[in-house]
Amino acid sequence: MKFYNSQFSIDKAYFTKLQNKINSFKEENSIRKGVGLTFITTFGVKQNSYSLAIVDNQIKIESLFVY
Predict the structure, then answer these.
(1) For 36-50, how does the pLDDT look when each residue is reduced to its tens digit (9 = 90+)?
(2) How many Å apart are CA 41 and CA 65, to the nearest integer?
(3) To bridge 50 with a disulfide, which of 15, 16, 65, 67 should be the other Cys (CB 3.0-4.6 Å)?
(4) In whole angstroms, what is the distance from residue 29 CA to residue 62 CA?
């Protein structure tokens, strides 16, 4: 988990890192089905080709404090 003080943007290097993490998780846990990637963010994830390809859901912090 990390904090970013503006909208987060996924670049090619971070996209590859996320793919590797997902693949490692699936291999280590013998998962054959899909794994969804969810970002919990303060300001959201900037939409670009990388984020659209890998991010399944995003939850902005204000959603956690709705009554």
Answers:
(1) 999 999 899 999 999
(2) 13
(3) 15
(4) 32
